[in-house]
Amino acid sequence: MEGEPTLRLRIFDLNCWAIRYLSKRRQERIGLIGDALRRDSFDLVLLQEVWSEQDYSELAVKLAGCYPFSHYFRSGIIGSGLCVFSRFPILDTLLYQYSLNGYPYMLQHGDWFCGKSVGVGLEVTAPLLSLSVQLHAEYCREKDAYLPHRLVQAWELAQFIRHTSKAADVVLLGGDLNMHPEDVGIRLLRGWTGLQDAFAEAACFEGCKNGCTLVPDNCFTEQSELQPFPLGIRIDYILYKAISSFTVKCEELKTTTGPAPGTDIPFSDHEAVMATLHIQRQGQPGGATLGTAELADVVTEARTEVGVGLRAAQRQRYSSGRMAVLALLLLLLQAAAALGTLAGLGAEQPFPKLSFCLLAFLALGVLVLATGLHLFHTMEVKMLHGTEDQMRMALRALQEHP
């Protein structure tokens, strides 16, 4: 930035929906994404749901000429799916994995196995702190069992930004946040960090109506997800703010609007988001934050939802603990009966041996499963309780030091 009064920064953000063996026409779409990025040169590319490292490697080879710097963030069992490509040198990287990320027994959703995270790259521009993010999916808006986990993730992300952005002049966040613009998690994230929404601040917008990134016209979109929202929903964002003596303005925001150029398929089930930002050195940092009272209301609302999740987790911990105790008692009774038979203290074995063994194996399986669930929900209770305590301290700080 030295010697440059204004830096024009072009950003591309996309949830690629590249799940190996499951996503439709994955390899073809990855190739189309690479071709588009090579053809339309951006400064920074933030991608989510690139679950296969082979896909990332193919993209890295294809884009090496125009994006010489890149990084793939690894976490969880199947990976975070996050990667970044940059025209500028990446000085440092960091991955933070959220403390809560769904349930391991919800195999059909799979969020727990990928280890949802925030990937951070500190770049030489400005310096620019860029974050590629994905939060837990919603799945069912009417009965959103994952809302407390997503709020914990939003809170941890906000705290992470507050504590890691001090060395940067500009913070840029892009990703699939799986929340609508007016949801409490988005209001909490933006209010606590001061991040601005590129869609709301853009001087010029071109793309899907209301900036939606899940739209009914996309052939890969699950139409059932959009039943209450016939025009689509906006869950992919580019957020930004200036930290020190810089201002950031969004000159233009675009979304893709259907099939990739020259093809019959879109890049993904999500539309891509593209922003053009102007970063300029000035006397005071730009951006606006919520007022104290409004921010306190948002934190209170989020804390209430986390409290609901905490009570649900406590009930699940109690149920799984009780199941483990009952399975253990059954095993002990079977062991006592078997020992009594072997010692000749009782009558002949009342059950056939095969049935007796099957019952023992069943009780042992229930014991192991229930114990695992009890330990998991114990951890969940601790994390939700810890987040609730942090929010309580934040509210007290807002009241004492508005």
Automatic annotation (TrEMBL):
Annotated localization: Membrane
InterPro entries from the UniProt entry: Endo/exonu/phosph_ase_sf, Endo/exonuclease/phosphatase, Sph/SMPD2-like
Main subcellular location of this protein, as a coarse class: membrane
EC number(s) given by UniProt: 3.1.4.12
Gene Ontology process terms (BP): sphingolipid metabolic process
GO molecular function: metal ion binding; sphingomyelin phosphodiesterase activity
UniProt pathway annotation: Sphingolipid metabolism; Lipid metabolism; sphingolipid metabolism
NADP listed as a keyword: no
Residues of the signal peptide: none
KW Disulfide bond (keyword) present: no
Entry's transmembrane regions: 324-347, 353-376
Pfam families: Exo_endo_phos
Lipid bilayer topology: Multi-pass membrane protein
Domain Endonuclease/exonuclease/phosphatase: 15-270
Keywords: Hydrolase, Lipid metabolism, Magnesium, Membrane, Metal-binding, Sphingolipid metabolism, Transmembrane, Transmembrane helix
One of the record's GO cellular component terms: membrane
Family indicated by similarity: Belongs to the neutral sphingomyelinase family.
Protein name: sphingomyelin phosphodiesterase
Species the sequence originates in: Orthonyx spaldingii
